[in-house]
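ok new one. same drill as before - structure tokens go in, u give me an amino acid for every spot. 209 of them this time. try not to just spam alanines like last time pls lmao
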């Protein structure tokens, strides 16, 4: 793992950075990446996706999206990146963006069947049309699921809880805005949506920030 990486499992966070590591990324702090990772892990436990390992990169996502997720083919390992203007976004937008990206993992295997297994079965122009239509519809589906989970699960509480825990790690006390959930032992996550063009993959079994 890179020097700024941190490993997190479904059971908690386990720092795995060497002594010479740089724990502050260029555009987001290590505490922010730890909180994002904890939230993603909670959400994935809710989704029964503990086989996945997720990394929270210190590199920014593309300019045209709030966050992106990428995965390694044939492995349950994904990396989330957030935009360089992350701190300019409100809490709901941040949470919805991470939720949206995590939910993309649910159709990863379907992606392989629809986009990869059909490549040799049709002409190039037909496959390009299929890919455009498929990606459009999966984005709409993920947005719908994210909105549904946001309405039916305590995702806002899970998000605040994750940030509260990282604040306690860093300062020994919770952030004021998360203090009301300080009695929580770690709610399961539910997330809200965010549609951005680049979706790859994320998970809760392990977190690399």
């Amino acid at each position: 793992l890179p020097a700024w990486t941190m490993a997190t499992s479904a059971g908690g966070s386990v720092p795995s950075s060497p002594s010479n590591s740089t724990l502050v990324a260029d555009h987001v702090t290590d505490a922010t990446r730890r909180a994002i990772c904890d939230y993603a892990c909670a959400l994935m436990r809710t989704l029964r996706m503990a086989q996945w390992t997720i990394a929270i990169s210190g590199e920014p996502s593309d300019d045209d999206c709030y966050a992106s997720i990428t995965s390694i083919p044939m492995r349950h390992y994904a990396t989330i990146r957030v935009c360089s203007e992350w701190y300019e976004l409100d809490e709901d937008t941040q949470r919805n963006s991470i939720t949206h990206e995590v939910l993309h993992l649910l159709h990863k295997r379907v992606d392989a069947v629809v986009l990869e297994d059909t490549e040799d079965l049709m002409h190039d122009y037909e496959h390009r049309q299929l890919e455009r239509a498929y990606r459009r519809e999966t984005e709409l589906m993920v947005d719908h699921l994210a909105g549904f989970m946001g309405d039916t699960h305590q995702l806002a509480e899970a998000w605040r809880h994750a940030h509260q825990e990282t604040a306690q790690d860093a300062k020994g006390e919770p952030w004021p805005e998360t203090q009301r959930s300080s009695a929580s032992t770690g709610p399961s996550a539910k997330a809200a949506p965010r549609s951005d063009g680049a979706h790859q993959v994320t998970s809760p079994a392990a977190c690399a920030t």
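Residues 124-152 form the longest helix (29 residues). and btw The radius of gyration is 17 Å.
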